[in-house]
Amino acid sequence: MSAVGLTLLARIHGFFNVAHGILFTLGAYLSLRFLNLLPDWGTFPTFSFGPALILAMFLSMLATGAVALISYVLYYKPLLNRGLTPPFLTLSSLGLMFILRSVVYLSWGSRVRYYSWNVPTRIPLPFGLGLLSDDLFIIAFAIVLLIGVQIFLRRTGLGKRLRATTEAKTLASVSGIKFRNMVSLTWILAGVLSAAAGTLYGITVHVKPLMGWDFLLALFAAIVIGGVGSLRGAIAGAIIVGFVQEVGAGFLQNLFFSMGIRVQMYSYKLAIVFTVVILVLLTRPEGLRTVFWGRSDR
Amino acid sequence: MIAYLESLAVLACTYGILALAVNLQWGLTGFMNWGIGMFYLIGAYSSAIITASQNPTHVGGFGLPFLLGLGGAAAVSALVAFALSFPVFKMRRGLVAMFLLAVSEIIRIAFINERWLTNGVWGIRGIPKPFINYVGPANYNHFYPGLTLFILALVYFAVERAENSSWGRVLRSIGENELLAAGFGKNVWKYKMQSFVISASIAGIAGSLYAHYASYIDPTAFRPWMATFIVWLMVIVGGTGNKRGVILGSFAVWGVWIFSVNVANLAPFTLTTVGYVRMLVTGILLWAVLVTRPQGLLGQPEAISAITDENEAG
Fold first, then answer.
1. CB contact under 8 A, B291 and A87
2. What is the pLDDT of residues B78-96, one digit of tens each?
3. In the Cβ-directed half-sphere of A228, how many Cα atoms lie within 13 Å?
């Protein structure tokens, strides 16, 4: 989800926004903040959270979208007016990352937080696998949100205008689309999606200041694997990365263990993912989207 | 006070060498090496393993002399850079930075996990102080800043010569117009690879100097924040492409960095919040420099484009 927001931004501005990871963190923390403000309405049966967290997540999505817009207007706009080139913009996004990260640290400290201490129910699946009820909700919510974004981008007039702007800036401006508004919209969308992703991550794992940083590297891998600039590629890449991280690490752990090599494969999740990235780059520099949808897909 | 300034100078010189390494690529070809911290880390550990005396907690401990450690640090970093240059130069420019950052995090995680190699988070102790037998422990604190300054000067002149050679001019033309350079029959990949390898070995030397100064290293000292981003801040503040500028930038940024702790003692901050406030200030500083003077304190004009523009105009 976050990958979609980042891809949109990368397409409209032509640079990779390092500060994206911190929007993810901020979204998760804002959910925590709103959750503490809201009264406790109990939890859904079998889930570890209740309606309060859902409402908090939506509030956080709005707030993070606003933060993303503000950071664009206050931080990036002067830089863009200076006419900086993409490498400088990527560098400058480091600065925004540090500003927002210090805000997170100053407001919430460095402790690891949890939304709730309740334990979700385990739903048994065939083949000895199991699925936590929370994870089921996360998957469902992510799918719904992604379909929503796809419908917004492909079916609504506003979404079409947005895609047109990211593909051909000048042509879109000539056709009467206000470039400024489209850029602002992209930033809001990126913030909203990041906040949702951050909160969902917070539900299943935990909330900590560096969560977005760890996540950013995996996100980057997803984008490269999927093919830079492709929205569907970003989603496919994200699924591949998640799969490779969890299943691949477990598989290699068992493999090495049976060979008598003692190695903690789970701490090398990132290494496994980036091996895949290198393989993809060496064989298909365009990313895997050319495998799925052909070369012309955007 | 003098001891304070001397320790400041050692690290400022080390960062100056790192900034020169970054600048060699960034200034000439516009290549963003965010893996500089990785070569710094690799250099420090190679040098430590080569020169420290034997120890069961980590691999090696060959007890070899300092100069071999320095050379080994440069060589190992160069090898890693060579291996990485195959995937790296296939990527788009904006992505390379993130890729190298990810690789350096992976290597740092590996150094934390593989205790047999590096003793993990407990680090490597007892890295010998070079030339201590000749200088004596009493004067040693005055000697080491001189040594790092000397090596900084050596690196400076080496880089200066390389940049002004025909090799450097080809790289500069690649940075400003890659197709033009390729059109002149230059093997663009080879030149980029060479500059990457050389820059990595310079960072390895910086790592070695840090290891011998601290005499104890562990992976926390090489987090991206302290090993990569601060170097980039120095380069941006000092002036992209300008060697004197980036050295000035490294002394200025490191001075402000160290001094800010003293200022913080006056303000109502605890020691942990100081780090966060410093992070905030650094972010704002980077933004301010980029908005007001994107070329840095001392900038560098584009030499080759200036010539071609002139020709087009005339």
1. no
2. 999 998 888 888 776 667 8
3. 21
- Over the stretch B23-77, which tens digit does the pLDDT of each residue have? 888 888 878 888 888 999 999 888 888 887 777 667 776 777 888 888 888 999 9
- Does an H or E element contain A223, and which? helix A211-226
Q: What whole-number distance in Å separates Cα of residue B125 and Cα of residue B143? A: 21
Residues 200..219 of A with a Cβ closer than 8 Å to B: which? Answer: 217
Give per-residue pLDDT as tens, A139-158: 777 778 878 877 877 777 77
Structure tokens at A41: 């309405």
Q: Which of A78, A264, A274 sits opposite B103 (nearest CB)?
A: A274
Asked whether B45 and B217 are in contact (CB, 8 A), the reply is yes
pLDDT above 60: residue A8: no
CB-based burial, B199-237: b 16+ in 10 Å, e otherwise: bbbbbbbbbbbbbbbbeebbbebbebbebbbbbbbbbbb
| Distance from the Cα of residue A16 to its chain's centroid | 13
**Cβ pair A90:B291 closer than 8 A:** no
Pair B130, B71: CB distance under 8 Å: no
Buried b / exposed e over B106-141, threshold 16 CB at 10 Å, is bbbbebebbeeebbbeebbeebbbbbeeebeeeeee
Spans of chain B below 70 pLDDT: 56-57, 61, 92-94, 261-272, 296, 299-314
Contacts of A95 in chain B (CB under 8 A): 282-287, 290
Q: Is A266 on the interface with B (CB under 8 A)?
A: no
Question: Taking the CB of residue A37, how many other CB atoms lie within 10 A of it?
Answer: 10
Nearest CA in chain B to A17: B94
* Arithmetic mean of pLDDT over chain B: 80
**Chain B interface mutation, best of A85, A98, A275, highest count of B Cβ atoms under 10 Å:** A98
